[in-house]
Amino acid sequence: MNILLVEDNDVDAMMFDRALRDARSDNTVVRARDGVEALEVLNQQDPPFAAGAPFVVLLDINMPRMNGHEFLQELRADDRISLVTVVVVTTSSDQGDIERAYERHASGYLVKPSRKSEMTRVIDCLTDYWDRCERPLH
Fold this sequence. Notes:
CATH topology: Rossmann fold
Strand order of the largest sheet: 2-1-3-4-5
Radius of gyration: 14 Å
Largest sheet: 5 strands, parallel
Number of strands: 5
Low-confidence stretches: none
Order of helices and strands: EHEHEHEHEH
CATH architecture: 3-Layer(aba) Sandwich
Structural class: alpha/beta
């Protein structure tokens, strides 16, 4: 599974990386620090992923320059990348944030775990889910 991690917090990104190692996952991970950087990665001619576009974007909401909601809006408006799967993983449990994410067609919304062991469980769950999903031919 290719993952674009859109996360501005270095500690949270490090926890994610450690959880991936604990899950013994061989996923390709590219990190963007905000929505602007994430759109740049997705729009590159030669994406940094082995199989092209990422299979899933893990998206934080509260970021500088372009937050997660703004990113989702821009992503969904661009026909070339609008179908990318996005799972929001954020500290916000605000009902308004949850509703806005789903209105912009997020595939899931998870409140960010506070411990590495919980994050490892989330990674295991996501990896298992995406491994079982049928992928499009293109």
